[in-house]
Amino acid sequence: MSDLESIDYYDYKALLKRARSQIPEYVFQKDRFELPEIEILIEGNRTIIRNFRELAKAVNRDEEFFAKYLLKETGSAGNVEGGRLILQRKISPELLKSRINDFLREYVICRECGKPDTKIIKEGRVHLLKCMACGAIRPIRMI
């Protein structure tokens, strides 16, 4: 007797159990998005994020946009140079990590499904964060 013949088509729990058993395990994992370890170097009065290009690529955002946010939030001048972000003042690693997490919550992570598969689109004069996983769209403030 085949698998289909042994199923009672009106038993909801059995059908649900069968459907769940056919879904791959990775679908149920919540923590598939991992940010690379942030490499922060403090030299004199400057703070350098050495793997800034790698961070921007991991969150799928433009380096300049990401840098502009961090510069504004830390109240510092700085620039992106050779894949590194150079901030023109001493900033504690804890503060930088906190500001990066704020950026992720505001401009990367979908508020509906919690996935990082988003992109920023512009409709008219409004910028929107569109989730490619669930289709949710929400307005965001630009920097």
From TrEMBL:
Q: What does this protein do?
A: eIF-2 functions in the early steps of protein synthesis by forming a ternary complex with GTP and initiator tRNA.
* Molecular function GO labels: translation initiation factor activity
Q: Which UniProt keywords apply?
A: Initiation factor, Protein biosynthesis
Reading the lineage from the top rank, the first entry is: Archaea
- Fill in the subunit field for this protein: Heterotrimer composed of an alpha, a beta and a gamma chain.
Q: Does the keyword Protein biosynthesis apply?
A: yes
Instruction: Tell me the organism.
Output: Methanocaldococcus fervens (strain DSM 4213 / JCM 15782 / AG86)
Protein biosynthesis among the record's keywords? yes
Span of the secretion signal?
none
Q: Which HAMAP family match?
A: eIF_2_beta
Q: What is this protein called?
A: Translation initiation factor 2 subunit beta
Gene3D superfamilies for this protein: 3.30.30.170
